[in-house]
């Protein structure tokens, strides 16, 4: 049996990592010099590193470990499924029991008539599926020119070339270019972009950019609008209350498909099973991944409404991945959903933990660096600012202050990430009130240290 050793000295592991492993979203040469932190074990909300440090994971891995680390049930289900049927595909007139059971379960959990599931290995490839799905849908209806998908700047829809084009991350576009017929409108980020408008007015104005885009591009050209109910990787941007009802009105009025990218928001993160329930949206398609298996195995899906599935079914759908509906991934996801449901984890988030977290999160507004505190369920963000009243940005390069704060958190053994100069959290849904208290001791300490450092380095200056 291959042994993956945890017993090498940290420096040796780091040297091997630097020599052979290319990290995602990293400047690898610099990271190699510094050495990556080696995570060796995890249980509940706690990670352990190769030095024996215990770290409170305020990000649930990458927003995915909803049921927490170390649930043996999932390991056992995986082992059993590997023995029984480790792999078979669902391409050529075949199917298998785990994929049937999981599709049925997802149809039951998903709202409305989202009753049909196309599987992928994660969120990026599920969004690639969605691009082909919506274009095929309109082709099958005899409207092949209806192929433009509208998305938003600063959206994250994945890292494949197509899904990153769908997303609105300028840095990703710069490295791989765009694919045709994707159009971006502005995001509903009031703190950074609201100017003198009140939030409600700004929310309406940003939603109406969708209508303006449809009218400009032509109703006969626009296939779909895609959005995260709450933007995650963009910095946990919560739209003003006026935004989503207006988006829904516009999608209904012009008959364009609405895709809710629930890769982060799904499976309890917002305090309901899906973010579209929290925000009152009725999508035709939902993208899911992450919390569907709590990250224990890679799996994602597009969950499709009756009408879209029917139109797609009219002809051959030329699409599929080797691991679509992988039996081991499906079995593990199903066990994860059983735990979420039977242990009433989503209910507890809604009724107990999220309200508690919200109260502590919003209390951070008393900190001199914190200008805005936003939170929906178990995903929150704070905007760091040198001047709360004017919502000023820092004079330093965007992200400098956020990075200082993140480094302090990392040293203090709490994972809180930065996106530019916003700090974000998204802890495992099973975090307890006591663990939340501990997380805030570490967060406050880190914010205080960051504040002192920023002061000392003369960085507490507003941009002109
Ligand atoms: N949609 C959304 C809304 C996501 O958040 C994807 C699609 C892509 O999923 P996969 O499984 O292909 O990664 C995501 C992923 C970050 C970060 O730094 C966020 C994600 C991935 C990696 C990093 O916040 N979200």
Task: Give the SSE layout.
Blueprint: H1 10-20, H2 28-34, E1 39-43, E2 46-49, E3 54-56, H3 60-63, H4 72-84, H5 97-109, E4 114-120, H6 123-140, E5 148-152, H7 161-166, H8 170-176, E6 182-185, H9 190-193, H10 199-217, E7 222-227, H11 243-254, E8 257-261, H12 275-279, E9 285-288, E10 300-305, H13 306-312, H14 327-342, H15 345-362, E11 370-376, E12 379-384, H16 400-411, E13 417-419, E14 422-425, H17 433-456
Parallel strand pairs: 5-6, 5-7, 7-8, 8-9
Antiparallel strand pairs: 1-2, 2-3, 4-10, 9-10, 11-12, 12-14, 13-14
This protein binds 3-[O-phosphonopyridoxyl]--amino-benzoic acid.
Note down, in words, how this protein is organized.
By secondary structure, this protein is α/β, with parallel strands linked by helices. It has two domains: 147 residues, Aspartate Aminotransferase, domain 1 (Alpha-Beta Complex), CATH 3.90.1150.10; 270 residues, Type I PLP-dependent aspartate aminotransferase-like (Major domain) (Aspartate Aminotransferase, domain 2). Helices cover 42% and strands 15% of the residues. It has 17 helices and 14 strands. It has a seven-stranded mixed sheet with strand order 4-10-9-8-7-5-6, sandwiched between helices. Strands 11-12-14-13 form a four-stranded antiparallel sheet, covered by helices on one side. α1 packs antiparallel against α2 and α16 packs across α17. The longest helix has 24 residues. The protein is globular and about 65 Å long. The mean pLDDT is 97. The site of 3-[O-phosphonopyridoxyl]--amino-benzoic acid has 18 residues, from α6.
């Amino acid at each position: 049996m291959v042994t993956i050793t945890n017993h090498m000295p940290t420096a040796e592991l780091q040297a091997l990592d630097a020599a052979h492993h290319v990290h995602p979203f990293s400047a690898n040469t610099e990271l190699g010099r510094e050495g990556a932190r080696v995570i060796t074990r995890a249980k509940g909300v706690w990670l352990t590193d190769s030095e024996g440090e215990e770290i409170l994971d305020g990000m649930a891995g990458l927003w995915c470990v909803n049921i927490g680390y170390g649930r043996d049930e999932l390991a056992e289900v995986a082992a059993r499924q590997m023995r029984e049927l480790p792999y078979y595909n669902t391409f050529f007139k075949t199917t298998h029991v785990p994929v049937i059971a999981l599709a049925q379960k997802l149809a039951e959990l998903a709202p409305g008539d989202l009753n049909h599931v196309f599987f992928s290995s994660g969120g990026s490839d599920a969004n690639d599926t969605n691009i082909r799905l919506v274009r095929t849908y309109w082709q099958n209806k005899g409207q092949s020119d209806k192929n433009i998908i509208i998305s938003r700047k600063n959206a994250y829809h994945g890292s494949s070339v197509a899904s990153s084009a769908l997303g609105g991350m300028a840095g990703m576009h710069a490295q791989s270019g765009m694919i045709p017929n994707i159009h971006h409108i502005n995001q509903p980020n009031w703190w950074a972009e609201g100017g003198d408008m009140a939030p409600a007015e700004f929310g309406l104005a940003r939603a109406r950019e969708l209508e303006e885009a449809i009218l400009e591009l032509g109703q006969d050209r626009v296939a779909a609008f895609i959005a995260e109910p709450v933007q995650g990787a963009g910095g946990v941007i919560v739209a003003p209350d006026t935004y989503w009802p207006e988006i829904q009105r516009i999608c209904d009025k012009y008959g364009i498909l609405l895709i809710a990218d629930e890769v982060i928001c799904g499976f309890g993160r917002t305090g309901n099973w899906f973010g579209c329930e929290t925000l009152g949206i009725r999508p035709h398609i939902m993208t899911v991944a992450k919390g569907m298996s709590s990250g224990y195995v890679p799996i994602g899906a597009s969950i499709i409404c009756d009408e879209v599935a029917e139109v797609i079914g009219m002809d051959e759908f030329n699409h599929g991945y080797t691991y679509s509906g992988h039996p081991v991934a499906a079995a593990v996801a199903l066990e994860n959903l059983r735990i979420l449901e039977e242990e009433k984890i989503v209910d507890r988030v809604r009724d107990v933990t999220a309200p508690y977290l919200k109260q502590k999160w919003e209390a951070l507004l008393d900190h001199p660096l914190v200008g805005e505190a936003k939170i929906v369920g178990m995903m929150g963000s704070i905007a760091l600012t040198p001047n709360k009243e004017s919502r000023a940005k820092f004079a330093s390069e965007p992200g400098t202050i956020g990075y200082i704060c993140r480094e302090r958190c990392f040293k203090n053994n709490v994972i809180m990430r930065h996106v530019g100069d916003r700090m974000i959290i998204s802890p495992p849904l099973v975090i307890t009130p006591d663990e939340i208290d501990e997380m805030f001791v570490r967060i406050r300490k880190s914010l205080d240290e960051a504040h002192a450092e920023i002061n000392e380095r003369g960085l507490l200056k507003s941009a002109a």
